[in-house]
Design brief:
Layout (H helix, E strand, L loop, with lengths): L8 H18 L2 H29 L10 H5 L10 H7 L4
Length: 93
């Protein structure tokens, strides 16, 4: 293989070929899929980091996770009246 001197037409063609190779790699399906998967992994890690930081910051004010499912069914600030509550109040007219 012959090496071309800088500034010669052969070195210019070699640099164009190198650019074409890089373009082919950057536009390949495999590279685009890798880019997509890497971006998704970074995004998921980012959101988990935010969730963990919020948990640590507000740990004392958040209900324990053990009771979170059972206590989520109980709404102490409920403003609507169920049918049973309506029957207990009697007719409203």
């Amino acid at each position: 293989m012959r090496f071309a001197l800088a500034g010669s037409p052969a070195s210019y063609r070699a640099s164009l070929n190198l650019v074409a190779v890089f373009r082919a790699i950057l536009l390949s399906v495999d590279f685009l899929f890798f880019l997509y998967a890497f971006h998704a992994a970074i995004s998921i890690r980012y959101w988990f980091a935010i969730a963990i930081a919020i948990d640590i910051r507000y740990r004392s004010s958040i209900r324990p996770r053990l009771f979170s499912i059972a206590s989520s069914d109980i709404d102490i600030e409920r403003t609507t009246i169920t049918r049973c509550g309506l029957a207990a109040l009697g007719p409203l007219w």
